[in-house]
Amino acid sequence: MSTSTKSPNQNILLTPSSDLIENGKIIYPHNLPHPVIFLSGTTNYNKDESRWQVILTDRLLARSRSTSTDNKNATNEPNSFAPVTIIDPYNPAWDSTWREDPSDERFVTQVNFELEGLELADIVVVGLIGADVRAGKIGAGGAALVELGTVLKGKGRKVVVCVEKGFWKEGYVKVLCERFGVQCLDSLSMVETIVGAGVDSWESEMSQMTGLV
């Protein structure tokens, strides 16, 4: 996926290891195509299954006008949809040596990257998905709950929540979503539909604003 913002027809996929990230900071954030979609939620997964973030990213980018790969070999697929930016905060470098403590610079850099991504996002997807979630594992998605609380009262962004049955705080999440008028879904396919509609709506609004200039 592209790590350059020079082409208006390229999608951007930002991860902690992207070329556009330096010390946890997004370089030239104002050059990113909008809408910006942040994928919050559970990142633990079994080796025999794909991360939900990868599945959703592939589906959303398949809708767009242009795609490219990490080696910067772009392929154009003409379509009616404009490019988007997707932020996937999953960091494969995270291991048992990391400490969730301000003294661990790796941890601080990761958290700052996630917070900046949330601040930039036009659409936030909070996915409480995976084997640990379905098994009711206590503590699964703990950081995602913090991020959910961060974005619920935010203005000017769309929030979509997906919580699979069995999540240890499923009832709590559903009550929060109802109180703040946030869509709470139970399948990734439904998330794809809702987020896709949000992208379409964003593009329509931007086109109308451009026409008024």
CATH architecture: 3-Layer(aba) Sandwich
Characterize the quaternary organization of these chains. single chain
What percentage of amino acids are in beta strands?
Answer: 15-25%
Q: What composes the largest sheet?
A: 6 strands, parallel
Strands across the major sheet, in which order?
Answer: 1-7-4-8-9-10
Helix and strand string, N-terminal first? EEEEHEEEHEHHEHEH
The number of strands is 10
* Poorly predicted ranges: 3-7, 65-79
Please give the share of residues in helix.
25-40%
What overall geometry do the principal axes of the alpha carbons give?
Answer: globular
InterPro entries: Nuc_deoxyri_tr2
General description of the model:
By secondary structure, this protein is an alpha/beta fold. It has a single domain, classed as Rossmann fold, CATH 3.40.50.450. The chain is 36% helix and 17% strand. The protein has six helices and ten strands. A six-stranded parallel sheet has the order 1-7-4-8-9-10, sandwiched between helices. Strands 2-3 form a two-stranded antiparallel ribbon. Strand 5 (66-68) and strand 6 (74-76) form a beta hairpin. Helix 1 packs across helix 6. It is globular, with a radius of gyration of 17 Å. The two termini are 32 Å apart. Mean pLDDT is 84; it is low at 3-7 and 65-79.
